[in-house]
Amino acid sequence: MNEKPKVGLFFLVGDSWWGAGVSDAKKGRYAGFLGKVEDDAASVAKELEKHFDVVSSGLLHTREEAVKEARKFNTESVDAVIFCPIIWTNDPPVVAFIQEMKRVPLIMWAYDPFRGFPEYLKIEMWLRGSGPVSVQQSSNIFKRYNWDFEVVFGNEKEEETIRKIKAFVRASMVRKRLVGTRIGVLPGPCRVVVSTWIDEFFLLEKFGVELEYIPVDKYDKMVKDVRERDAQEYVDFLKTNYTVDQVDDSTLLASARQSLAFVKMIEENGLSGIALEDFNEDIYRILGFRPHLYHPRFGELGCTIGLEADVAGVLATIIVSWLAGRMGMFNEFFSVDRNKNVVLLGHAGQGELSMGDPSTFTVTYDLEFDSSQKRGAWLSYRAKQGEMTLLNFTPEYGKLKAFAFRGECLPGPRIMEGYSHMLIRPPGNVIELYNNIVKNGLIQHWGTVHGDITSELDHLTRQLGLDLKML
After folding, report:
1. Is the whole model's pTM more than 0.85, yes or no?
2. Within 10 A of 155 (CB to CB), how many other CB atoms are there?
3. Which residue from 10, 66, 332, 381 has the fewest beta carbons nearer than 10 Å?
């Protein structure tokens, strides 16, 4: 989840400067000019190498060099291209690059080495800072070739400039990684919460995401194949590490079998998510009770489990996890406290444990069932303090609506039993937030992760052709 993205860094300078004697001048006002530009490019590359696997041939200025660079990027299968026409350049190399390069997300860097003008600009100083002219000039060519791009202004010494580039590249890597991502659906669409229904082909076309439908009897066989000693080992782990609230050993053992069967399912099918339809009658008829117990291997394998077969909610959680570089939680917007201006969120089932405050970890029965009914075990928590980003994907007319908001997850002891939960204070009024959610017809499930990834989300949704709205 924290692998370094691979970027193609395409530096371009104008071939005309060689014809004008500027680039190779040995004396006069332009003596050493090219060396300064090369130093700027080297400084840029050095900074970017702290964050990315950088593929670059340095300063280029001819069509032939541009073609070779594009081919190099293609061979290296870069996640994104950073195009930095670092001083004014000619158009033919840009056209040649576009024609040769496979389409990947691209950001144009309007390089400004000075961060402000002096009282008087000598021509050689101005030319060293002329990159923003080339970005304007090249933008029209990329537009006419239907290659969408982003733009950033500044230099490598500015934290905000690097932060924007990192957000763009991170989004580009996630977009590429989504292709071939597999989400298991156990066993099928939810007939109780119909707003979770989604167009499977849209997922494949828009994201490259594939669904794997898993019958309950196939999962049941995995449960039965779990070795007794492995299940007992997990039960012992639960008892040693967490508070177990009056859950009997037979329930813990049966739930541990289910959890370990999920681990096997994730590993064998290469799943990044599981959409569990826990209202399905076969779940109760074949398994006896719904499989809701978390196992630490879920997070280690990078797999999110969401309920009501909400594939879109699981996908939202996968995306925020990948953008943040840490596991997120499939979550539900419960309600708001109007007096304290906070939102209560949580969910039954396999809440991602790494999000929780360890002092609040508790194992209970599945408390949504009465004690007279057969039921399994839950492992739940209150989430740790920190800034959070929440993403909602709601299916509508065969497509997806995308909405997000940010807030501060508040610290403290558990405030509810059973569910993994959190209290979040958004920057605005909670009633206005709630009303906007309802007016936009959003389902209650949110992919939730620690950290502010709104910039990354903005880049990714644009790359995917989704219209992200911030609440």
Report:
1. yes
2. 20
3. 332
